[in-house]
Every structure is written in structure tokens, then in C-alpha cells.
Amino acid sequence: MAVRLRRNLFVSLIILLILLAMYMVALYQDVEAVRFLPEVDKTAGIAKKELKIEKDDHLLERIKKRQAERQQRLRDYCEKHASSRNRSDRYDHPIIVNDEYKVIFCYIPKVACSQWKRVFLALDNRTDVDDLHKNKHYKFLLYDYSDEDIKVRLKSYFKFLFVREPLERLLSAYNNKFVNNKWSWRRIQRYKTKILERYKQDEPSSYSSDQYLTFKKFIYYVSDVGFDRDAHWRSYGPICHPCDIKYDFIGHFEDMTEEAPYILRQTGMDRAVTFPPFLTHNTTSQLLKSYAPIPKEKIAQLGKAFEEDFEMFNYDFPGPLSDLMHD
């Protein structure tokens, strides 16, 4: 009897150890899967929209129709201006490449680029970087390849970019860099010194006109001489070469909540990552309040400076600022 009892206890112990081992293996796999995500919960942010995309045929049709219209708009623009532009096969801007998923992404600063960078870093199992805007953290950028390898990838990989209403992007760049101080002190001071010296007489009644880089002075600078001086407010063409690279998907920031999970599903990246949450765009009232002090002629200069962005990607000018341009 005692022997049988000891045998049963031994068998029970073996079974318990096996079950414990299975649990630990499963737990380890879950930890690895979570670690592989771009530092967000799997149900956070845009990831919730993925469930809707799988079931909503109307949403899929809307995305496809919208995409066809954007592609046609871009083709028409490129054909119309073919004789006046120089074709480029130099890609100095760091365009991100992932060879495993055969994806190429041209990021544009201030168009949710931080969220997309987290996605691509997570695909390379890099979620602990000190500064995601440093190029050294990315396994492959397009200019790292030979000319022949670039051609092969541009021909066969899924290529996409996202754009944003240009005037809204300008406000976002100003707030991020000069109000929230997301640049280094040295870089901010370099711009402040240049802009304040040039436009110190344009706000004589402002109590902070000599020390503070106002949005008005920033707009004066961008509209006059500086619209192409920094990638955060540079025109889209020199960054992503949309007339030279045939992008498979042209995304709009305004439709990111629908289009980001769609791209992840189309490329298979959704098996490894979800899209992190991001801040929504400024409202029309916020834009009107910020641009209200800007003279109409300066807003018109902005329209001219970013004319190709408005036309290429079907944004109306003055768009959200129409009320400010009326007499």
C-alpha cells in the first residue's frame, strides 16, 4: 500500500513538473511577443481599427478608391511637369528599407514619422534605442545599397509614404521644435538667431519680439527664404521623389487611423507589430487662431512655396485658412 502511494505521488509530481515546464515555455513566448511590439499594448491606438478592417468591406473599398484617386492625381501632376523637372536617382534622405517584409518607407518629418520609425525598429527587434531619429539605429536605409540593389528593391518592394496638409505641418513643426523645444538648444539657437535678426522689425509692439521666436517670424522666414532649409518643413518632392519612385501607397495623415493598419495587413507586418498611438491633427479653429496674425500676402507666399505639395497630393490652398484670406 505504501509503495503504491509513493508511486502515485511520484507520478503526480512528474505530471506537475511537466505542466509547469509547459507553462514557462508559453510564458516566455508571450514575453518575447510583447517585447517585439513597438512599446505599445496590442489593443492600443490604431490596432483597434484592424478588427474593423477585416470585417468592413465598405472601409476596404473606400481605402482602395481613395488610393486610386491619389495615384491618378500624382501621375497627372508628374506628366504635366515632366519637362520642367530633373529626374533624380539620388536618395539622400534616409528612406527606410526592410528586406524581410520587402517594404520601403519614405518618412516625412511631422507626418507621424516617429510612430512609423518605432514600427520599423520593432521589426528589427530594436525597441530600446536612445534616439529613434538617429539613422545609425536602422538596419538598412536605401542609400546604403548599391545602385543595382536599389533598382531591384524599388522595382519589387512595397513602397509607401504619408503626407499631410502643408500649412498644418508647418504649425506642427513650429510647435514641436520652438515651443516644446524638441531640438537641441544649439540647433534652436542657430535658427532663432538667424530668424530674429532678419525679422526683428516685423513685430515692434510685441513684448517678446527681441527674445522669442514667434510663429509669425517663423512663417516670414519659411515663406521668404527657408522653406527648403530643413526636412521638417521642406517640400515633399525633394524628400521622397514621388515622381521618380512609383509608390504603391500614398497615405494621408488625416486618414492614418484607417490606412496604417491597412498597410500593416497588406505587407504582413501586422504579424509582428501594431501601430503606436499618435496625436490627432490640429483643428481648423486652432489653425485659424495661429495663422490669424500672419498677413495675407505671407500666407499667399506659403501657397507658392509649397505649391507642388498642394497640387501633387490634392490639398486645397488656402484650404483651412480660407476665412483668413477673404476681405
UniProtKB/TrEMBL annotation:
It is a single-pass type II membrane protein. InterPro entries: Carb_sulfotrans_8-10, Sulfotransferase. It is an enzyme of class 2 (transferase). Keywords: Carbohydrate metabolism, Glycoprotein, Golgi apparatus, Membrane, Signal-anchor, Transferase, Transmembrane, Transmembrane helix. It is found in: Golgi apparatus membrane. The chain crosses the membrane at residues 9-28. Its main location: Golgi. Pfam families: Sulfotransfer_2. PANTHER family: CARBOHYDRATE SULFOTRANSFERASE (PTHR12137). Belongs to the sulfotransferase 2 family. This is Carbohydrate sulfotransferase. It comes from Porites lobata. The lineage of its organism: Eukaryota, Metazoa, Cnidaria, Anthozoa, Hexacorallia.
